[in-house]
Amino acid sequence: MIEKGAVLPLFYLPPVEYFTELNIYNPDFVIEKHEHFPKQTYRNRANICSPDGLLTLVVPVVKGSKMHTPIKDVKISYDFNWQRLHWMSLQACYRRSAFFEYYEDEFAIFYEMKEPFLFDYNEKLLQILLKLLKIKATINYTHSYEAEYLYLKDLRQSIHPKKDTGFPQKNYYQLFEERQGFLKNLSIVDLLFNQGPQAINYL
Predict the structure, then answer these.
(1) How would you write 122-145 as a 3-class SS string?
(2) FRET pair for 76, CA 20 to 30 Å: which of 50, 57, 58, 70?
């Protein structure tokens, strides 16, 4: 276990702040693998920019995945076709962005595959996002659950859709900015589809 650095949760299409922190602490970060699943967090949701403002995409989980379920055991629910909804939303919101077509094949497969577990799905997404952002990182995991860490910056609860983290974010071009102003800390895909290979310089 590393003695310095940060512990990060595993999110679905994480927000920009997540990759800013990961980049700061790389290679000294670990991914939390043993926490219990907290509801209404970025672990199964992402915010994107739509013509009408903020749009939240939620990955449904199998009922019974309550607070006491270990994160690695949380199963994705396929009772309704959320993948089609998410993919249609991403296409509708970003089809006109500068780099969507450049990356769309990499993402399309995630809306066809039927990955049973949320953790595994998010892990595969993180790998592809690191590749597209050109961030070289080896992903290490926690070996057990620790309520708090003495030497690591604990980011498991701090990056949260219901908290304003005070993340100091510079504006970048967003597709519908003239309509609703700049939306802060959206999913990394917003940065990627709008900025393309320049995204890593922004981070």
Answers:
(1) HHHHHHHHHHHHCCCCCCEECCCC
(2) 50
